[in-house]
Design a protein that fits this description.
This protein has helices spanning 5-12, 19-28, 74-89, 93-99, 104-115, 121-137, 147-155, 159-178, 205-214, 217-229, 233-238, 266-276, 301-316, 326-337, 343-346, 351-357; strands at 2-4, 32-36, 39-43, 51-54, 57-60, 248-252, 259-263. By secondary structure, it is mostly helical. Strands 1-3-2 form a three-stranded antiparallel sheet. Helix 5 (104-115) crosses helix 8 (159-178), helix 6 packs across helix 8 and helix 10 crosses helix 14 (326-337). The radius of gyration is 32 Å and the shape is elongated. The relative contact order is 0.06.
Length: 369
């Protein structure tokens, strides 16, 4: 049943508000409104919201404005409309009141509490950010979140974020299923993320030499140490002279926790000796004088990255600058070109990971008849 907005306003208000104000009041009151041939009407319906009778057929108004046919059977159309309203617009408030209103935040807090004692502070901080993103992107009671909403949310992310946030959602839903709050883990039904290949500027030997020529002595030592040891920034900055005993240097990698005993070769040992000959007295292999605190010689990772980037931009004169981490890639290629195995030194679990750092295409030999 349709009542003209003007008629409704005249029956309820004096003086009668203008059409724009009347429409806002009607919507604030929760009344259904519909624009028909340029005029607004109050709709008093026996049908669920978004379901309309068009001649002898029922149609459903989709969020994009399209109106697909729902057939001519009234009961079937009503049942389908109720289900669509729940999937597309969330649960009815009365249903939420009966079933409870636990949101993703509830399960996110539980997941984070379990995760915190078992991961590094930086990893926990990243998890905290990811939970915040999924909670903001998928608000409301968990039982009212549809698969299409989850899929749309994930599709709006980058490929890398898609994979990470999908994994978080699966974990949160697993907790909800375990508590009996929902019946199934809906995020598991979504498509896995597309294969993600990190695109980053590689460092050539020429780039290395150009940066090296402009670098201060402490940064040159860091670059040589990284090239020859294949260790990550945090690991080389933490190494001390007194850790090298009988030509061997133990490394417990900060990222993976993998323990490696490095047999220090003559070239790497010469880098260590150069470090000991600098005017700055320090037990750290990579070190420099801290101007604000002269007694401190430890180089922080952020400072290394900042100085390296500045020197690299000056040396290469371009925007797409390889990072310090790319020295690891250059070193792996160098070792393989000399017929040496780089996997153990790099601390990779499998050869495939090492392949991802190698800058050269390695052909497999195959013979013909």
């Amino acid at each position: 049943m349709y009542t003209a907005l003007r008629t409704w306003a005249e029956e309820n208000f004096h003086p009668v508000p203008d059409p724009k104000t009347s429409l806002k009041i009607a919507e604030d009151w929760g009344l259904d409104t519909e624009l028909v041939r340029g005029k607004w009407y109050i709709v008093k319906r026996e049908l669920p919201k978004n379901l309309y009778l068009d001649g002898n057929r029922y149609r459903y108004k989709m969020p994009d404005g399209s109106r697909p046919s729902m057939g001519s059977d009234k009961e079937e159309a009503i049942q389908a409309a109720i289900e669509l309203n729940t999937k597309l617009y969330g649960a009815n408030p009365l249903v939420a009141k009966v079933m409870g209103s636990k949101s993703l935040r509830h399960y996110g807090d539980q997941w984070l509490a379990r995760r915190k004692p078992n991961v590094k502070a930086s990893t926990y901080k990243q998890s905290l950010s990811q939970v915040r993103l999924v909670c903001e992107g998928l608000p409301g009671p968990i039982f009212s979140i549809s698969q299409s909403q989850i899929a749309d949310f994930l599709d709006s992310q980058t490929d890398n974020q898609y994979a990470k946030l999908r994994k978080v959602l699966i974990e949160l839903y697993r907790i909800a299923v375990a508590h009996g709050d929902i019946a199934e883990n809906i995020p598991e039904k979504t498509l896995p993320a597309p294969s993600f290949v990190r695109q980053r500027p590689r460092m050539s030997e020429g780039d290395f030499q150009a940066i090296y020529a402009r670098a201060p002595e402490w940064l040159q030592i860091a670059m040589d140490f990284a090239l020859l040891s294949l260790q990550r920034e945090g690991d080389i900055l933490a190494k001390r002279h007194d850790e090298i005993v009988n030509g061997q240097m133990p490394v417990i990698q900060q990222k993976t926790g993998k323990a490696i005993m490095i047999d220090v070769g003559p070239q790497l040992m010469e880098v260590v000796r150069r470090s000991m000959r600098t005017p700055v007295l320090s037990n750290y292999i990579v070190h420099k004088r801290n101007q604000m605190h002269p007694m401190e010689t430890f180089v922080k990772q952020k400072h290394l990255q900042k100085v390296f980037l500045k020197v690299a931009r000056e040396a290469l004169g371009k925007q797409d600058i390889p990072t310090f981490h790319e020295i690891r890639s250059l070193g792996i290629t160098m070792y393989r070109n000399q017929g040496l195995i780089a996997q153990d030194l790099a601390g990779h679990e499998d050869e495939k990971t090492t392949d991802g750092y190698d800058q050269e295409i390695r052909f497999t030999e195959a013979r013909t008849l």
